[in-house]
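Annex B, item 7. Sequence and C-alpha cells for protein A, then protein B.
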Amino acid sequence: MFKDFELSRRGGKPTHLFRFVRQGMIWRFAATDRDVTIGGFTWRAAPIVRAEIKQTVEKAQDSLTITLPYNRDAGNTDPVTQSLGDNWHPFIPSDTVGVVCMATHLGDPDQEIIVEWMGQVGQPKFTDGQLELTCVQASSIGKAQRQGAKFQIACWKTVYSTGLRGCNLDRASQSTTAMLNGVNGLSVTAPAFTGVPLNLAGGALQFTDSSGLVQRLSIMSHSGFTIGLLSGAAGLAVGTVVTVYPGCQRTWDACNARGNTINFGGAIYKPVQNPYNGKSMSWG
C-alpha cells in the first residue's frame, strides 16, 4: 500500500488544497472542478492557484502568491471565494489571516493530506476579477523578542501587556461601552464618548461584527463625542455597540492618571541632557 502511494505521488499530479483561518472562521478550498470531502471536511471547488514554493536560506524572500477569483462589484454571480476576499475589501483586516497550503491525491485509498507550506497573508492585490494574495512565512516576520528594560525617561512597556515585565494595566477597568449614533467615513460619534475619564486618542475601538469576527480599530483623535479612526471595518454603522479604551502616552503623569505607577517602566530621574557632554571629568 505504501509503495503504491509513493508511486502515485511521483507519477500523478497532486490536488492542491487551501485552508485560510481568521480568528474562529475557516475557509477550505480545493483546486478541483467539484467539491470534495476529505478528512471529514468539505473543500469547496474553486479556480484557485498558487505559485511554486521556494525554500532558500533567506526565509524573508520565500513568499508565496495565491490567486483566486473575486468580484469587487458584488452581485448574484459571485465566486465561492467571494467571502474569503471580503476580508480585504473594502477594508484591510486589523488581525492576521493564516494560510496552510496542502496537497493530496484524490485517487489514493488512504487520502493522505500533506502540508506543503504554512504562513499568513501579507498583502492583497486586486485586479480585474481576481485577488492576488502575497503570503509570508511566520518566521520571516521580524519580532522583537526577549527585550529587556530600556534606560529612558518614557515608559518602554506596551500598554495593557501582562507578565513580570508587562504594563499589567487592567483593560476592562479602562474601557467604556457605547452605541454609535453617527458614522461618517472614519469619524464615529456616540454620547458616551464625552463621559470617558481619559482622552481616547491613541487607544482602540473594538466590536464584534455580524460574522462573529472581533474588529479592533486604532483611534487617531478624540474630541467631545467624536472620535477619528485610522481605518474602517465592515459592520461599523449607526446602532453598533462598541467598546473603547484609551492608549497611554507612557509618561509618569499618564501612568499616574491610570493608577498604575507601580508598573511604570520609565527612568524618571534620568537627566534630559548628558551632564558630562563636552566637559572634562578630570580634577587634576
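Protein B:
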Amino acid sequence: MSKHAHTVLKSLLSRASTDALTEPAPKGEELETILSAVMRAPDHGKLRPWRLVVVKGEARAKLADKIVASMKRLNPDADAKKIEKRHKRFSSMPMTIVLGMHLRPDDKIPLLEQELAVGAAGMNLLNALHAAGFGAVWVTGDVAYDPVLAEELGFPAPHALAGFFFVGTPEKKDHEVKRRPVAPYVAEWDGEPVSFKADKD
C-alpha cells in the first residue's frame, strides 16, 4: 500500500461525528475546497441532486428561530426544554450547512437513486471536513421532514431536506469513537441467501 493510500485510509477510519464544536469553522478557499468534495459523489444520470446552504454569523439565530417555529408547528405541545435546547444548538454552532435534495420525480432516474446520491454527497462532506481538520455531525429530527421549513430554506416540494450539518473545530483534537468490528456485517455469497452475525445479536 502506498503512503498516500495509507494516509487516506487512516483519515477515513478515524472519522467520527461530534457536536462538541468550537470556532473556527472553515471559510474562504478552504471551505470551497471542502464543499467541492460533494461534487465527487456517485450520481447516476449526472443529476447532481444535492444543494448546500451555508449558515453562519447572525443568520444562525434566524435559522434557530425557523427550527423552533417548525417544532411548534409539528407539535403544539412540544416540550419547552427541548425547544430551548434545539434553539441553543442551532444558534451557537460555529456553522451549519443545510443539505437539500433537488429531486426530479419525473426523471428516468428513480427517486431512491437520487436520494442515495444526496446521501453519498453528505458522506463526502463529512469526510472532507474531517480530512481538513474540522469536526461535524449530521442531524435530522422531525423538523428535517417539515415541508414548510424546507420551502422556507429554498426547497419547495417535490424538493426536500436531507438534514443539517453542524460544523466547526472539535473541542477534543483526539476525538475518536471506538468502531465495531466489520466481520459481523460482511458475508461472502456462494449462491445461497446470506445471513449476518450482526442480525443475530
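Comment on protein B: The chain has six helices and five strands.
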